[in-house]
Structure formats: structure tokens, C-alpha cells
Specification:
Distance between the termini: 78 Å
Shape: globular
Strand content: 15-25%
Radius of gyration: 23 Å
Largest sheet: 6 strands, mixed
Length: about 250
């Protein structure tokens, strides 16, 4: 009788542990690591999060019955957190980040450009043309923008990468850099922000020397990756995705 009771007790405890595991694996609230880069992810003084990427990810998961709890980190820690599994999801992620996690379908594409003041008449036609100028780019640009860009900039003494893209724009407008490299939406947002302190009416030239950069969400669980992909497909089909993109478009 004692042995039977023990077996039942062990079975009950095992069932409890298994149910807790399932509950954690399929929790309705997903911890999501993001980094602040307007207009993709923004946070106000009250801690409320908005932005293109946040709304796409939140709404895609919401379409499948899940909510998100955002944790704001620098990009390097976003990648590290997803890799270590200390969060359930993180974005933006590329396959080159080698997180070893489950990557979603592409949810956003960055339009990286070379930006210059129009009066300079630089007429950039290729990546190799950049070697003639003082170039300031976003952090990790040499990794993100491909082998040719990394090779050309590796031979350029006047190439700098900065974590603060507002500083890039200020350097460009002050004549301390000839070309700024970054995403066109990010640059437009910075230029039109009064706190940047530049004249948004100054004519600019945009040179599209790079292919679009595709980003995905990294998930610790294949289940949530699949749920996100289903929700993202719904947003694209019902027009909600386009509405989010239009909402944050700088005129």
C-alpha cells in the first residue's frame, strides 16, 4: 500500500512539474527585448512604448492571442538576451547575429542610404565612391552593409561609426562629415526633431547604394515563432501592416 501511495505521489508531482513547464512554454505574455531607435521603437517619459517595430510585433502576436512585456536594452544586449534565453523574444535580429534561436519571417526592411547635403553635388554612384569622402555611419554598419562596404571603409581613414545617429546628422549639417550612412526613416525622424537643432528645409541628396536590410524576430520557442508568423501574415492580409507603416511616415 505504501509503495502504491509513493508511486501515486511521484506521478502527481511529475504531472505538476509538467503542467508548470507547459504553462511557462505557452504563456500568454511574452517578454520581448527591443532597443530605442525612433521611429521604430520609442519610449516616452511614462515608460509607454510606441513605434513601427513595436506595433508590428505586438499586433502580430495579439492577433494570435498573446501579449508582450517589453524590456528596453541596447542592441548588443538585445542580441545577447535572445541568445542566452533570458527573454522569450528579441528584435531586430539577423541570421548573421548567430543567436541559435528560431527566427521569424522578415517583419521589417531598413532602407539604408548615403545622405549628403545637395550643394556638395557628390553624385555618388557606387560604394567605392565613398572612399573619397569623410563618412560617418551607424554602429556595426561595416557588418550589416556587406563585404564590399566593409572592404572599402576598411581602407578609408576618414570613416567613423557612431552609436548615436543624431550625432551623425549634426556632423553632416555642420560640415564635419561629407556623407552619413543610415536608414532613411531614422534620418528623416532625426532631422525633423527640433531637439536635433538642424534646418530641416536644407536640400539633401539620398543615394541608394545598398540593398534593403531585412530583420526578423528571434524567439526562444518555435511555437511562438510560428504564432508570430501567422499573426504577421494576418496583418499583411488585412491592411493593418500598411496602416502602421503609414502612421509613422515622415511627410
Amino acid at each position: 500500500m505504501m509503495r502504491l501511495w509513493n508511486r501515486r505521489k511521484i506521478g502527481f508531482l511529475a504531472a505538476c512539474v509538467f503542467s508548470v513547464f507547459l504553462g511557462n512554454a505557452h504563456s500568454d505574455e511574452i517578454s520581448l527585448a527591443l532597443r530605442i531607435v525612433p521611429p521604430y521603437v520609442m519610449q516616452d517619459s511614462s515608460g509607454a512604448v510606441t513605434g513601427i517595430e513595436y506595433e508590428i510585433i505586438r499586433n502580430a502576436l495579439s492577433a494570435q492571442g498573446h501579449s508582450v512585456k517589453v524590456e528596453i536594452y541596447p542592441l548588443s544586449r538585445v542580441i545577447a538576451s535572445v541568445t542566452a534565453g533570458t527573454v522569450m523574444a528579441g528584435a531586430p535580429v539577423q541570421s548573421g547575429h548567430n543567436t541559435g534561436r528560431y527566427l521569424s519571417d522578415v517583419y521589417i526592411r531598413y532602407d539604408n542610404i548615403a545622405l549628403s547635403l545637395s550643394y556638395r553635388n557628390l553624385g555618388l554612384k557606387s560604394i567605392s565612391d565613398l572612399s573619397l569622402y569623410r563618412v560617418v555611419a551607424f554602429q556595426r554598419a561595416a557588418t550589416v552593409l556587406g563585404v564590399e562596404f566593409a572592404s572599402v571603409m576598411g581602407e578609408c581613414d576618414a570613416y567613423t561609426e557612431l552609436p548615436d545617429q543624431t550625432t551623425q546628422i549634426r556632423m553632416l549639417f555642420l560640415g564635419r562629415a561629407d556623407v552619413a550612412i543610415g536608414d532613411s526613416r531614422i534620418f528623416r525622424t532625426i532631422i525633423h526633431n527640433p531637439e536635433t537643432g538642424v534646418d530641416a528645409s536644407v536640400p539633401l541628396d539620398e543615394f541608394r547604394l545598398f540593398p534593403e536590410t531585412e530583420y526578423r524576430v528571434g524567439f526562444v520557442s518555435a511555437y511562438y515563432r510560428d504564432e508570430f508568423n501567422k499573426g504577421l501574415a494576418k496583418l499583411r492580409a488585412n491592411g493593418a501592416y500598411d496602416s502602421i507603416m503609414e502612421k509613422y511616415r515622415i511627410k
